[in-house]
Predict the 3D structure of the following.
Amino acid sequence: MELVIDCKIVQQIPVSADFNRFKPPFSVIIACLNEEDTIVECLERLTKSVPEAEILVMHGGKDRTYELARNFAQSHPNVIAVRNENDCGKGSAIKAGIKRASRDVICQFDADLQFEPEDMARVVSPIFEKRADVVIGSRFMKSADASTYGFSFFRTLGNRVVNLWVSLLCGQSMTDVTTGYKAWTRAAMQTINFRDNGFVYEVEIPMRACLKNLRVVQVPVKYHDRQGGISGHGTGLREVWSLGRTGFRILMTALAIRLRRN
Ligand SMILES: Nc1nc2c(ncn2[C@@H]2O[C@H](COP(=O)(O)OP(=O)(O)O)[C@@H](O)[C@H]2O)c(=O)[nH]1
Ligand SMILES: [Mg+2]
């Protein structure tokens, strides 16, 4: 079967003058699992860097993240704090966020500040320039800056294997399918319609987009170590187990999607 895929890799894209001038509206979804260390700085930097954006904080944990976000929202009308009842993973929080979002362009962002809020205008720009339906903020493109990210053997190996696997299945070079920095149009997401409630949904988005002939554009983003809290994968042996399990599920799900059985 012939696949026609438009998956462009962009090494550096400037934010267009039109974007800066018109400040087009979009929604940001921040899935949070106990991110009280970083949520306020995250919201401060986002509201400065993209003041026009609607920001939804989807908290599924038990710490003070929701209360901190709600306090912040009192002086920032564009920010909405949601206590995500029945949260069963990052994918479920993003699904709930998409339902609550009021704009037609949506960007997801991680609360742990591993990514930079200041990169967001560059990430959503290709959509407003009508060059993309889905944008991948890539940590592994040549011009991406991960100089302040500590090397992790399992994550590096896992990402290499997963990106290679998905690239082979799609017939296109995908540099970072698991990235937490992604943007899409509402119409594209209706076509993609990802299923997974955990971390596997991250891979469903670019893969289903490619297979449905949507335009996927990859742009480089900066990447750091976690700025507080702990990963949803846990630490130590628990992290290795969770990453291994998630990696295996990603490989199997990607294969099933390619075979059109999922
Ligand atoms: N609502 C919700 N958010 C989650 C869950 N797991 C992770 N997140 C959030 O998703 C983002 C990325 O997760 P993270 O734990 O940093 O994954 P890692 O970067 O791969 O270690 C962070 O903002 C987390 O707080 C979850 O089960 N529910
Ligand atoms: Mg993280």
